[in-house]
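Lab notebook, entry 463. We have the chain sequence and a SMILES string for flavin-adenine dinucleotide, and the next step in the workflow is to get a structural model of the bound complex before anyone spends time on docking refinements. Request logged below.

Task: model protein plus flavin-adenine dinucleotide, output structure tokens.
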Amino acid sequence: MKKDVIIVGAGPAGIFTALELVQKGSKKKIIMIEKGRSIKERVCPKSVTNKCVSCKPNCHITTGFSGAGAFSDGKLSLSYEVGGDLPNLVGADVVQEMIKYTDSIYLQFGADTKIEGIGVTEEIKDIRRKAINASLKLVDCPIRHLGTEKAQDIYFAIQEYLLANGVEIRFSTECETIILEDGVCKGIVISDKTGETTSIYGDHIVLAAGRRGADWLEKVCAENDIAHAPGTVDIGVRVEVRNEVMEKVNDVLYESKLIGYPKPFKNKVRTFCQNPGGFVSQENYDNDLAVVNGHSYKDLKSNNTNLAILCSHNFTEPFNQPIEYAKKVGELTNMLGNGQLLVQRFGDILDGKRTWPKELSHSNLVPTLPDAVAGDITAAMPYRAMTNIINFIHAMDKVVPGFASDETLLYSPELKFYSNKVKMDTDFNTNVKNLHCLGDSSGWTRGLMMASLMGVMMGRKLL
Ligand SMILES: Cc1cc2nc3c(=O)[nH]c(=O)nc-3n(C[C@H](O)[C@H](O)[C@H](O)COP(=O)(O)OP(=O)(O)OC[C@H]3O[C@@H](n4cnc5c(N)ncnc54)[C@H](O)[C@@H]3O)c2cc1C
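Result returned:
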């Protein structure tokens, strides 16, 4: 089989590559290969079972049309400062311009017109003053909040649009590897759900496998000498507090992007993915590693706000396996929780004791992830990361009084694997001719908007 453009992965990066080609009138034959299912067939059984059942062969939360975007909170970050390192590759101005364009496509497919985090300047000034006092940087980032359920409607509309415009999408089909001849990428080998393998040849091969496909891409890079460098990993916790504690920041900014470099290590520590009235959730990686995440619905609201606190780890020689390192931390935490996520009260961490299940009911705060096991996350968290988290929470308390209260909940492990960074030029060419790597698996993005706009840029380059 021969196509003009082969796209591996139907997450935002892959989708927007195809979408831009179609919307700009390209007649190229496009095929998308996606190991998960179509968007309407993605159903996480947890709403019925109340606990994660580790779906096989793939987790519905992270695979399938729209990738990790479908069940995400759908927060589109409208600033080049948030969502990845792409500005370092193509320039901040270009990225900001592309955010504007890509945002207009989300609006075209039904995104809410409201933008959070703009207009209330006096309140923002007050939050910034407190951040300065706490040695934290407040990043300005307007947010368009799709909401988990609305995000699915938008991506469904895009899926139908692509299909109606002749894009072939093969679901439940996995890309095994790429076909390389004389240093040129000629195609890919796929396997369907029966295990049967087929080769597809194409002029351009775009790999957009997401964070979930990071291990696979790492293997493909190693086997085919695709130039790449070890990436960053973030190790941290998901923090949950009552909405009352976060009320001001939630109302004014919706999402507070705060960055600090707490003593003594002075590593970068930041807040990430804030969900006012949201729910803490569990996702499972292929090897059954359970990690914590969070999301919020447009309509259904809890009494709590959750957000991640992440410490970035960049390793130096001779160590070059950051993803494996983070996984070990996660596995150790899972082991202590008998395969489940751990949750601990901040006060217990400071007191040097585990949290007992009955103690959770002593608080104003009721956990939104009831199947997390009360325990001791400090028994698995590396000293450096734990110290960074504790000191950062104390700094946050100056911006958000009550954040460092005894009852504040810390869920673990919250891990972000940012994939090895594939070396590319500004046209997204790797050192292997006709091969391009996009989105989170390329190591250059880590958010919906940045992955989407990288897809748009790729689509334009393939016109
Ligand atoms: C629970 C959750 C909440 C999030 N919330 C937000 C948020 O609010 N805002 C935000 O900006 N970001 C959020 N993110 C991150 C965001 O979803 C990702 O940054 C974004 O989806 C990355 O897009 P992508 O196209 O690079 O990869 P992905 O969305 O991960 O898509 C990659 C696709 O490739 C497929 N794939 C992988 N390997 C193969 C293979 N070998 N063969 C075939 N198919 C393959 C996968 O099944 C997947 O569908 C969230 C992520 C999660 C998990």
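Notes for the group: The chain has 13 helices and 21 strands. Worth checking against the assay data. The first strand starts at residue 2 and ends at 8.
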